[in-house]
Amino acid sequence: MNVINILKALSNEKRLQIVRWLKEPDKHFSSSHCDVSKDGVCVGLIEKKSGLSQSTVSQYLSQLQQAGLIFTERRGQWTYCKANTNLINEFIKELKAMI
């Protein structure tokens, strides 16, 4: 875990918001196509909720994935995202120990 990379990824308000949404997907998203808690959240739902362009959301998700904060999985033409709650919890503990 690279704390600096995680902090950089979370330094953008929208990226932080996306991580919050993905940590509690049932609270923030609904889908008739899948169970968002189990299967993840379709990128299209994140785009719609954020009001950002597809390219911006894609870039933000890539940065979050590179930091290890989210998992992405391609299924057919769709990409689904889930929060990496284990890493997020480890990061919080590490940050508390550092400060």
CATH class: Mainly Alpha
pLDDT < 50 stretches: none
Q: What's the CATH H-level homologous superfamily?
A: Winged helix-like DNA-binding domain superfamily/Winged helix DNA-binding domain
CA gyration radius, whole angstroms: 13 Å
Assembly state (oligomeric): single chain
| CATH architecture title | Orthogonal Bundle
Tell me the count of domains: 1
Topology-level CATH name: Arc Repressor Mutant, subunit A
User: How much of the sequence is in beta strands?
Assistant: 5-15%
- Tell the overall outline: globular
Chain-averaged pLDDT: 94
Q: State the major sheet.
A: 3 strands, antiparallel
Task: List the main descriptive attributes of the protein structure presented here.
63% helix; 7 helices; Arc Repressor Mutant, subunit A; 3-stranded antiparallel beta sheet; 99 residues; alpha+beta
